UniProtKB/TrEMBL annotation:
Probably acts as a heme chaperone, transferring heme to an unknown acceptor. Binds one molecule of heme per monomer, possibly covalently. Binds 1 [4Fe-4S] cluster. The cluster is coordinated with 3 cysteines and an exchangeable S-adenosyl-L-methionine. It comes from the Bacteria. This is Heme chaperone HemW. Its main location: cytoplasm. The keyword S-adenosyl-L-methionine applies. Keywords: 4Fe-4S, Chaperone, Cytoplasm, Heme, Iron, Iron-sulfur, Metal-binding, S-adenosyl-L-methionine. Residues 1-236 form the Radical SAM core domain. Belongs to the anaerobic coproporphyrinogen-III oxidase family. HemW subfamily.
Length: 383
């Protein structure tokens, strides 16, 4: 039995809502974020007590929202609590997402001292015009400065996020962004295609015809450019949208793709436990008041618990595992589910291999280059 877990901590506060954002976050930031952190600590204690078998944390990821709105001592309190409740390893990967518009040399040094050893900077673009059109609070210069400050504060593991497919963006512009990213030499680069989410100001703009998004061909060409530029610059393309210098892959995110345990804390956070087999998922309420109210009465704030069927778990195993470019081992599937994957998905394998989306060799299955581009089509075959 796997008794390790990843821990995810959600900080649902932002200085201002970006125009495309559908994450659980509010711009109504309390004067004292310590009250929210107290709730997180309470939830971690309650969850640790409620587990039938104690779990040991191998990674901790503080995401948001904007975790870099927390003062460093509060971040230290979260890490200390993870050590106390989930025996967080001394060698654990501890990541904090930071918005370049919210960090200073002092806050970054404080996070490093508190025990954060990996920083994920939401740079998104190196173009002020694009950043403004997204409603981001930082400028391109602030993005570069935040990166330099992070290195100076002692972070030798810094990742950045970039978004492509922005309004008014063409392929040449996107290539320039990738080259600018490579010049900084971050350890990790995550690239996301802009999606217009329901209920966001971007959805409204799009409905009014005011969002000049790249057409499908350009969007596909931008996606293809990513691997060309980043791999040539020495980055390993290890997951559909993620690239890392050797030795810098995100340990935390690999837990998700390998269907490991993860426990989420905070408003809107998601959790998954493999035991009892074949596993269960649940989430916390998005509403901070509801989340806090539940904890105030000593009750874990979980909602929407789904116990997976064996069939769900098998499908998940494939569509999460295939996100990693090294692919999945058929023998691991057999060890996990007691059947050969070909007995369950033989016709899908045949079809996907014949159409050049999937490669099956040496007991492994992995996406082809075309399969990476059309990954949604591959994953749908397992549903
Ligand atoms: S900083 Fe991130 S979480 Fe906050 S509003 Fe912008 S996209 Fe959303």
């Amino acid at each position: 039995m796997d008794n390790t877990t990843a821990l995810y901590i959600h900080i649902p506060f932002c200085v201002r809502k970006c125009l495309y954002c559908a994450f659980t976050s509010t711009d109504k930031v309390p004067g004292d974020t310590g009250g929210y952190v107290d709730l997180l600590l309470r939830e971690m204690e309650l969850r640790a007590d409620a587990l039938a078998v104690p779990l040991r944390a191998a990674t901790l990821y503080m995401g948001g929202g904007t975790p870099s709105l927390l003062d460093p001592p509060l971040v230290g309190n979260i890490i200390d609590c993870a050590v106390r409740t989930f025996n967080l390893d001394l060698s654990a990967e501890v990541t904090l997402e930071a918005n370049p518009g919210t960090v200073t040399a002092a806050s970054l040094a404080g996070y490093r001292t508190a025990g954060v050893n990996r920083l994920s900077l939401g740079i998104q673009s190196f173009d002020d015009r694009m950043l403004a059109s997204l409603g981001r609070i930082h400028t391109a210069l602030e993005g570069r400065e935040a990166f330099a400050l992070a290195r100076r504060a002692g972070f030798d593991n810094v990742g950045i996020d970039l978004i492509h497919g922005l309004p008014g963006q063409d392929c040449d512009h996107w290539r320039e962004q990738l080259l600018a990213a490579v010049e900084l030499r971050p350890n990790h680069i995550s690239t996301y295609g802009l999606t217009v989410e329901e209920g966001t100001p971007f959805a409204l703009l799009e409905a009014e015809g005011g969002l000049p998004l790249p057409d499908e061909d350009d969007a596909a060409a931008m996606f293809e450019d990513i691997a060309d530029v980043l791999v040539a610059a020495g980055y390993e393309h290890y997951e559909i949208a993620n690239f890392a210098l050797p030795g810098s892959r995100s340990r935390h995110n690999q837990v998700y793709w390998k269907r490991g345990n993860y426990l989420g804390f905070g408003a809107g956070a998601h959790s998954f436990l493999r035991e009892p087999r074949p596993g269960a998922r649940w989430r916390n309420p998005d509403d901070i008041g509801e989340y806090g109210g539940s904890l105030a009465s000593g009750v874990l704030p979980e909602t929407d618990r789904i116990s997976l069927s064996e069939k769900d778990a098998m499908a998940e195993w494939f569509f999460l595992g295939l996100r990693m470019l090294e692919g999945v081992e058929e023998e691991h599937f057999r060890a996990e589910f007691g059947v050969s994957p070909a007995d369950v998905y033989g016709s899908q394998f045949q079809r996907l291999c014949a159409s050049g989306l999937l490669i099956r060799e040496g007991g492994r299955l992995r996406l082809s280059r075309r399969g990476v581009i059309l990954s949604n089509r591959v994953f749908a075959a397992f549903l």
